[in-house]
Each structure stands twice: as C-alpha cells, then as structure tokens.
Task: structure prediction
Amino acid sequence: MEPLPLFSLASETPNKVTPMMRQYLEIKHQYPDCILFFRLGDFYEMFEEDAKRGAKILGIALTHRNQTPMCGIPFHAVENYLAKLTEHGEKVAICEQLSDPSLPGIVKREVIRVVTPGTTFSENLLKTKENNFTIALFPKRDYFGLASIDVTTGTFLVTELHGYDELAGELHRLNPKECILPEELAEENLKTLLEAFSGLHVYSYPTHAAERSALPRISSQYSEVSTEYETLTQHFGVQSLEAFGIEKWPFAIQAAGMLLRYLKETQKTALSHLKRLKPYALQDYMMLDEATLRNLELTQNAHDGQKEGSLLEVLDGTSTAMGGRLLKSWILRPLTNREKIEERLEAVTWFYENSSLRDSLQQEIGKVLDLERVLSRLTLDRGTPRDLIALKLSLLQIPALKNSLKEAQPIRLKKIEEKLQPLPDLIALIESAILDDPPLGLKDGGFIKPGFNLELDELRSLSHEGKNFIQNLQKREIERTGISSLKVRYNRVFGYYIEISNGKLGQVPEDYIRKQTLVNAERFITPELKAYEEKVLSAEEKSKALEYELFKNVHLQIMEQLGWIQQNAEAIAELDVLLNLAEVAQRNRYVCPIFTQDNTFEIREGRHPVIEARSAANDFVPNDTIFNDSDQQIILLTGPNMSGKSTLLRQVALITLMAQIGGYVPAKTARLGLTDRIFTRVGASDNLLRGQSTFMVEMQEAAHILNNATDRSLIILDEVGRGTSTYDGVSIAWAILEYLHDRIGAKTLFATHYHELIAVAERLPRAKNFCVAVEETEARGVVFLHKIREGGIDKSYGIEVAKLAGLPSEVVQKAELILQDLEEGVLEKGIREQMKTVPGIDQGKLFDSAPEKSALITREQGRLTHPALERLKALDINRLTPLEALQALETLKKEGEK
Ligand code: ADP
Ligand code: MG
Result:
C-alpha cells in the first residue's frame, strides 16, 4: 500500500516532493483546465485550486494537509458529483489507478476520460427523449461551420450557416450543452451570444497547428491542405469525403474535424460508433428562426422552457427514447419537399386506418430499449452486462416488427421493413453468454451463464468448494479448540484469518500463526487455511478475469455488427414516430392535410392543438382560415384583449407546420400549398437573450421578416409596433402592412389593436379585415365568442375587460369618461397623420370642424370628374366622420383619375 497522507513529506523536506505528488503534478500539468479526480483507494481526491473549486460547488468539506487544500469523494458515488460539476461548466479529468495498489512501489495512474457538460452519461442529467449535443463552431466572417455530436447516441451532424440569426435558430434546435470554438478565431461578441444561451458552456480549443497558416486563405484547394479533412477521412476510413457530400463546405469540415479530435481526446476512445456524418442545409427544411421557434412553443413552453404546454407534449406519445428524439427533430425541422411529406403522410394514414396493426406494433416496439445509448456505452467501453441484455431484448422484437410490416404498401414502411435486421446470431450469442438479470458491475463477475465456458464453470466450482471447506473449518476449529467465540473471517489485506478474543488466547493451539494484534483480539492463520484461501481466491480472481475476458469477446462480436444495430435503431425510431403520429391523429380527431400545387391555403374549422388539448371542457371554438392570391393574402385581425387573436394566429402556424412534418392536423379539412418559411413576431416581447431594448428587437425582427419572406411564406404578426408610442406604432405597422402587400405577397395574419389599420386594410385589394366576435348583452356583459368573422371591430372593449377583471367600479367609470375625451382627440390626430400621406391635400388645420370639412371638399371638387362630383353631392358630408369623409374623397379621386 502507498503511504498516506500523500503530501506529508513535502513540507518536512520542502525541496523534495513525494513520488506520488510528482505523479499528481505531472498529470495535472496535462489537464490544466480540468478538475483532476485523482484516485486514491476508494476515493477520488482533489488538490489545491481544484479542491477549492470542487468543494465549493459540491458543498463538501475542504481540508488541509500541510497547507495543501484537498477534498475527496467516494468513488462509488462519482456519477452524482460529476453531474453537479459538469452542470456548473467544469470539466473533470478522471485519473484511475491502473496497477495493483497492494504491490510495492508507486501505483500507475492515468486519466481514463474527461467528463464535460456535453459528454456526460449521467442518468441524472441525460433526458431519455433528448439529445445531448456537443458542438464545434468554426467562424469565418459572417459564416459558421457547425458540427454537432451526441456521443451518447452516435449522432453526427454538420452544416454551414450564414449570420447570427441562423446560428441562433440552430442553437435553439440543437440545444447543445457544450460548444468549442477555435482559440484564435473566437470573437468576443460571438462568445457573448453563445454564453447567453441558457445551459450552454463554451470553451476555446486550440486549432490544429498546421491549420493556422492555412486558415486565412481558404480556397477551392482548401480541403487538400486541411488537416481536419484528414482527421475525418482517417476516422471514417475513406479516401475522400465526397461520399458524405460535404466537400463544398470547408468551414463545416473544419468544425467537424476539430470536434472529433476534441471528443476523442476527452473520451479516450476511437468513437467507432460515429459511423456516419450527416450534412444538412437549413434550406432543406422549413426555415424557422429562433424567435419563431420560441413563439410557437414547439418543443418547450415560453414560460419556463419545459415540455409542458408545447406542441411536442401534445404530439409525443412515442414508445421509445429513440422515437422521442426523432419526433423532436421532425417538429423542429419540418419538410419543404412535397414528395417526402406525402411519403410520411401515406405511412401515417396506413396506421391511422389499421388501428389493430398499430396497437400490436406499438406493443412490440414498447419493449425496445434505448439502443442508441446502449450502443454508445458499449463503444465507449462503458457498457455493462445489462447493456447486452437490453440489446438482446430489443433485437428480439425485430422479427415481429418486420413481419407486421410485410403487407404494408407505403413506401416509407417498405423501407423500414427492409432496414430491420433480426441478427439471430447475435441474440443467440448473448442468450447463451449472459444471465438474464446480471449484476450491475463488470469487474466482479457473476454475469456469465453456466455452461457458456467450461473453464469458467470449473473455476467457479473450485472456489465454491473452497468456500464450503472454509465455512466448515470454523465449526471444526471451535470443536478442536473449545473456543466457542472463534471466528473465521476475511478482509482484503490479510485474506482469511481466525480471530480469537483476548480472554481465550490461552487456548490457542500450537499450529496457529499470529498475524495481527487488535485491542480486544488477535488474528491468526493456519497453513491449511492459507492453502484453501489460495485455492478460493485464485479461483475467484481467475474466474472474474475470465468473465471479463468473455465479456470483451462478446462485446467484440457485437461491435462487428454495430452498423446493423444502428440501422435497426434508426428504423425503429422512424416507425415509432409514424405510429405515434397516427395514434395522436386518431385520438385528437385530426385530419390528413391535402397538399396543392399552387399557393392555396384553406383550413376549415381549424383548432389550436395545444389549447384544445389543455381545455378540459372540450369547448374549443374552431375557425376557418383562408388565404389566396386574389383578394385575401393579408388578414388583419382586430378584437379585444383575450378574445382569441393570438390563439388563431398560432393555430394557423402550427397547423401549417404539423402538416409539413408529415402529420395530421386539427381541422375539419386542410388544403395547403407548401410553405417555405414561417415567421412569427410578437410585439413588445422581451428578448432577454440579446439584452437589447424590446422595441429595437421588435424592429430588427420585423426587418428580418421583410428581408427574407417570400410569397410562399407564412407571416404571423401579433401586435407588432406595440413597443413604442401609438403614432410610431401605427405608422410602422401601417408601412409594414403595405410592404407585405405590395412587395412580398406572403400569407400574413396580422393581429392588432390599432383600429386605424382597419381603414388601411380596406384600401389594399388583397387585404381583408376580420374580427373576433364579441357579444355584449345587458344581462351578461361582454362575452367572447372566439369566433372570427369578416369586418373590422369598432370598439376595443379594454374597459369591459378591466371590469371583468374586477377593477373597482369607480376606476372603471372614470376610465370610461377619460376614454371618451381621448377618443375624440386621438382620432382627430390619427386622421391628421393619415392626411399627410394623401397627396394634394393641404395639411393645415383640417377637420377641426364641420365647416373646414366642407371647405376641403369644395376645394377638392375642382379636381374631380363630373360623375364623381355628382356622387359627392349625394353624400351628406356633415354626417360622415372625418375618416369616412377622407375615404369617400379618396375613392372618388381614384375613380376620377380613370
Ligand atoms: P388575444 O390575443 O385576443 O388577447 P388570446 O388568443 O390570448 O387572446 O386568447 C385568450 C384566451 O382565450 C386563450 O388563452 C384561450 O384560453 C381562450 N381562447 C382563445 N381562442 C379560443 C377558441 N377558439 N376557443 C376557446 N377558447 C379560446
Ligand atoms: Mg394576444
């Protein structure tokens, strides 16, 4: 055994450190940015600065030995402590004892892996239905190469992005735990953006030495000079990356190589389960920016970021963890390719219509365990016999799944059926080798089935016999010596011994050999005992070592089939999601959307999937939504607070999105043209992420929409312009509305409380006013019907809402009076603002009184044609409101120009 305490010699002879201290310092030197867990017997010890940080985060006692701060944690509880440290963004290097501590000399120690926030396998931190990504970013001006690896599942994704908006969206989708940036290229504002992303820990990582000179001149030749390119080709065992289709993405290659090296360094294994690298372009999917992802609450609610209240919660009834993860990625990346969408829909319909087939498949699939994580543990040498059993149980389901899909017509299901591989040899191997309910550990044996290996069986019976003999020995020795308290015991230092209490020492026989003196007793051995001990222990040692060998062997054979098993996992995940979408569709009375070639958009009796699911009374009021290119491209929606405007807006976005992931939708019918992007903006929403003023954010977001939307986009604008004064707000909203109408032609739903915009929408040929119906009766006051009807609303009902909310009646009455005053004045001013945009009208003191109104008309008369003049006369101008007068005038002028 090594001498403890560790550092005692250091202070006695200050110039010399103990050998173990030297070993510690050497290892620590290689891991300066990690907390080093230094294995000492049953503990991991931390020293110096590591100890201070560790003790603080873990809330454990910091002790000192000769001025060296230290603290330790028991090795068997390491997972909990690792979880805590990585959650705080610490990386932990785990340094193990690799030689037998009972041998003389210094124990050999080595770091066996580095645990980082992105690479934890802690059951406490890993969510079964979520990926745990580590990402690498390679920034170059406005472009980013992005690589993402989930070591726990073997997923490896790469892409290239342009601009911070795209980056923010991807971060939201991937929800990574850890990001590495090339040391030399990490700009401060990029770091700030990343660090503001909740739960993400950012580290710099040195770029490959050879890259530094190559970096500034990235050219078409780039891939040939790139060392990272070689990192990748070497890992995948290929000549070129052409087959992966990422040759054209130098930044992505850079990021991918860097990430692979980083993870190999931390995991200290070959990461052979990363068999493929999957490139994707944002353009392959429906573009959803970060604000939209958040506003639509697709996978997490806006309130606390949990799954509750999200679309995912409503749609997720997947039976496997793999299916859960896949469904999530489908929701975050809806398709834009009609053929692919329809392939999914076809499969969903198959299961929708065959509910008994669906039930039986779901039952079978429910027995499949998390194959991806099982495989990852196995490839990272962290697998246990229980993982093999999990693998076996999962593979056992495959023949039945395959069989059930035999008859399936849909092309997706045929592909899944082809992909599924029963692997009977592997099942048989595990079946014959591993006990059905093996112990957790790998080093202590006891998991190989009897009959699997002859030598093991012999060793086991040997050790069994020996144990029996030793047990009988106690009885025999008690009889022989007459000491009834005599005990045969075992510990790890002395092995077996006989313990005799002090009072009976006189009766100890001659042949006993004294080994140790305790306070109350002495410990002895006999040659016979030692002989059997030798037998038992060596048989036990040997059998443990043999079991480990046998495990490794089985493990190796499994690794040879890794690709097939991964393929099974993939097929099962997709099958699970398709089954689930059918099940959810039926349970929630969804319909199959129909895709049209043109830009048709017609939802009949659409419902909001989440609010509907959350209302217990089943009283959700459905609404129609129609867009077309002729007279209804923009829907301007007015209505009082709480009437259901925001709900309708989101409902339309969600239905569009659900259809394009290949799912059914909450409506009576839905005929949809393909949508390329969905934009949603919510007025005056706080964007804490970037720490900018709300109005600034709102305007940036509006700019983003106007610059990126196409006539195939769907735009949801909810109370945009609210973050500023009324006039600014109205003017901006107005201008945006016209721009969307005249220049972009995107399907737009615009909810607003600016009633001034109603007149604007009336003027624009492809804009239409809708409002949410409100019933106002003597008896019941204001009742929201949540029903949309054509036309603008004339009243905002804010005070009625205040009344409903229980504001004191005195306040309500006063507010009513103030409102009356204001409405008159504000309206006048609003008109004046509008007048500025009408050409040819004097902007002096207009409309302050009826005479002025008449004067204006008289003056304008000169510019009108005769028929228009006739019609003007027919109007009783003084009975019109100023706004109506203005509109009449404009209409007439337009007619006059013709
Ligand atoms: P607004 O945006 O007009 O202020 P919301 O869309 O936020 O109103 O709706 C307020 C509440 O009214 C929602 O939380 C929901 O409970 C209810 N609601 C909205 N639309 C409907 C509907 N179509 N059917 C039933 N309840 C609805
Ligand atoms: Mg609202």
About this structure: Residues 645-646, 718 surround magnesium ion (ligand 2) (CB under 6 Å).
